[in-house]
Amino acid sequence: DVQLVESGGGLVQEGGSLRLSCSVSGFLLNDFAIGWFRQAPGKEREEVACIAWDDGTIYYSDSVKGRFNISSDYVQNTVDLQMNSLSSEDTANYYCAGDLGSSRFVTIKSRCNRFAVDYWGKGTQVTVSS
After folding, report:
1. 43 contact partners, CB below 8 Å, separation of at least 6
2. Per DSSP, which regions of 8-111 are E strands?
3. C-alpha closest to that of 47 among 58, 55, 39, 82
4. Is the Cβ–Cβ distance between 49 and 68 less than 8 Å?
5. What pLDDT, in 10s, does the model give residues 24-55?
6. What is the rounded radius of gyration, in angstroms, for the C-alpha atoms of the chain?
7. Torsional class of 46: left (φ above 0), alpha (ψ -120 to 50), beta (otherwise)
8. Beta partners for 49?
9. Nearest alpha-carbon partner for 49 in 122, 112, 128
């Protein structure tokens, strides 16, 4: 079974940094993508960043571009999200998600969509204090 387990959330001051990690297991082939999504109270879940496991292509939402960095560790089987220059607007529950399929047939941007993913982690809370 596919399992996605998030870690690394917590409380950080504005302007600070935090690193989230998603432990990935259970995929039988390399044809999948992993994404980070977030949901703040009263708001819809939104995409943050996604990375294709097979070819490493990456997508960032405009709200985090230049501040966040997503990366894959093929030894540890994790996908990390380095978050810098955090603001209170980044406060949310952050979810790791998995989407089955090859990068040959669909762009990473189109896969970075909460309606497109096949698996979800349970989430980890990130709180940015002002």
Report:
1. 92
2. 10-13, 18-25, 32-39, 46-52, 58-60, 68-73, 78-83, 92-100
3. 39
4. yes
5. 999 988 899 999 999 999 999 999 999 999 99
6. 14
7. beta
8. 36, 60
9. 112
